[in-house]
Amino acid sequence: MNANPTALKQLMAVGLNMYEAKVLLAIQGRGDVTARDLARASGIPRQRVYDVLNALQMKGLCTEIPGPVLTYRATDLKNGLLNMLVERNREFQRDLDEKRRIAIALADTLQVEEAGPPTNGRLIEVIRNPTQILLRYDQLLLGAEREVLATAKLPYVQEMAEETYEKVVHGVEVHFLIERSALSGAPGMIEAIFRLYGDHEHRFCDHVPMKFDVFDGERSMLYLPYENRYGIVALVIENAALAGALARLFWSLWEDATPHIELEEEIARAIAEVRE
Description:
Blueprint: H1 5-13, H2 18-27, H3 35-42, H4 46-58, E1 62-65, E2 71-74, H5 77-110, E3 123-127, H6 130-143, E4 147-152, E5 173-179, H7 182-185, H8 187-197, E6 201-205, E7 211-215, E8 219-225, E9 232-238, H9 240-256, E10 258-259, H10 264-275
Parallel strand pairs: 4-5, 5-6
Antiparallel strand pairs: 1-2, 3-9, 4-7, 6-10, 7-8, 8-9
Helix pairs in contact: 1-2, 2-3, 2-4, 3-4, 8-10
């Protein structure tokens, strides 16, 4: 069988190896088929085809049919591939969680206190480049252990639209307070927020007075208009008192904000505008 090179490449892009992709293409639309026939049709060495079929079964892409002669049958391809991607994301998140724990433990072990008087947490970091702003934001998300309070309004960091996966670890709650003007003025931001963090809480309000995020009630990130070529500057402030004040502001706005469920049609239109 000469496998469709485009389909083969696309299946490998979503996570299959070459043997798996070839066997998956060979089994489509064939009904119940033996491993021997699949090896012949796919060009896979017969001694390897059983391992490949077992891997496809583990991914939910085919099923074994018992009988006098063992055969295999393709499952629904769309559901199988989507389920495989969901599981791959779970594995990625588990791996990310483990690496995060290792990084924190390593930092705690190797950290050397600087000489001199303590700063009492009055540490301010200024970031002007959008790429660096997003990188620092991702670092703070990944470091959060309990809760993130996030606001969204224009201007937004365009690079966020290129993000591909959620950055918070499992169990961390994220609350997004979004200025309603973003629905028409920044559909890319809306699409990114709901694509990456759709399982978290979102509300919309008419006006967010200042763009800021609060991480675990201990540190905050503020985004301020600035006369540079990017039009924005970010401040990261390690101060629990300021973080607490911003959290109180956030919850006072949240209380009167509109749950996203009441704006489903507008949200869907914004997302469709980006994905069309």
